[in-house]
Amino acid sequence: MDEALAARWNEVVGEEDVVWHLGDFAIRVRPERAASILDGLHGAKHLIGGNNDPPAIRALTGWVSVRDYAEIEVEGRQLVLCHYPLRAWNGQHRGSLQLHGHSHGRLKPLPRQFDVGVDARGFRPATLGELTGTPVSPDPA
Q1: How far apart are CA 123 and CA 129, in angstroms?
Q2: Cβ-Cβ contacts under 8 Å for 44 (sequence gap 6 or more)
Q3: Spatial CB neighbours of 11, under 8 Å, sequence gap ≥ 6
Q4: Which positions ≥6 away from 1 have C-beta within 8 Å?
Q5: Is residue 57 within 8 Å of residue 45, measured between CB atoms?
Q6: Residue 23, Cβ neighbours under 10 Å: how many?
Q7: pLDDT (tens digit, 9 = 90+) per residue, 5-40?
Q8: pTM of structure
Q9: Are the C-beta atoms of 48 and 64 separated by less than 8 Å?
Q10: What Cα–Cα distance (Å) separates residue 16 from each residue in 3, 10, 67, 76?
Q11: Which of 101, 5, 98 has its CA nearest to residue 48?
Q12: CA 102, CA 42: separation in Å to the nearest integer?
């Protein structure tokens, strides 16, 4: 299963892409194995910690950053990132999006809220363009 998930990740994510993993990276996997998996995944990887990310997973050197919550801007869109689905978030009524994991596609989302867990997204990372139905252009180099 690990190899299949890694292959699907690498089909979608390029070496220069930025990925925000919204938690529960490697459940019941030894840290050495998790480090090997992480090293084989394309992209610059940030972790928003989940309830199944122990300190050893959070400490892996393959993460660009590790935190429990983030607010970022991508292509002029405000994103609120948390492992958990929020019922209210910063900028909710001004167009910001809330991306989360944790619920495995079982919760009815609010407007502008997206469950990005792999089991809710075809077992691969989702792009912002796929979520919103609008293409996101790459950063100019």
Answers
A1: 17
A2: 16, 17, 18, 19, 64
A3: 124
A4: none
A5: no
A6: 22
A7: 999 999 999 999 999 999 999 988 999 999 999 999
A8: 0.91
A9: no
A10: 21, 12, 21, 20
A11: 101
A12: 23
Place of tokens 């077992």: 123
Residue 73 has pLDDT above 70, yes or no: yes
Phi, psi (deg, nearest 5) at residue 81? -110, 125
| Burial tier of 1 (Cβ tally within 10 Å: 0-12, 13-18, 19+) | exposed
Tokens of 17: 């892409």
3-state helix, strand, coil in the chain (%, to 5): 25, 25, 50
DSSP structural state of residue 26:
S
- On the CB side of 51, how many CA atoms lie within 13 Å of its CA? 6
With residue 19 as reference, give the H or E element that holds it: strand 18-21
Max avg pLDDT among 44-48, 123-127, 129-133: 44-48
Q: What is the DSSP string of 67-112?
A: ESEEEEEETTEEEEEESSPPSS-TTGGGT-EEEE-SSTT-SPPPTT
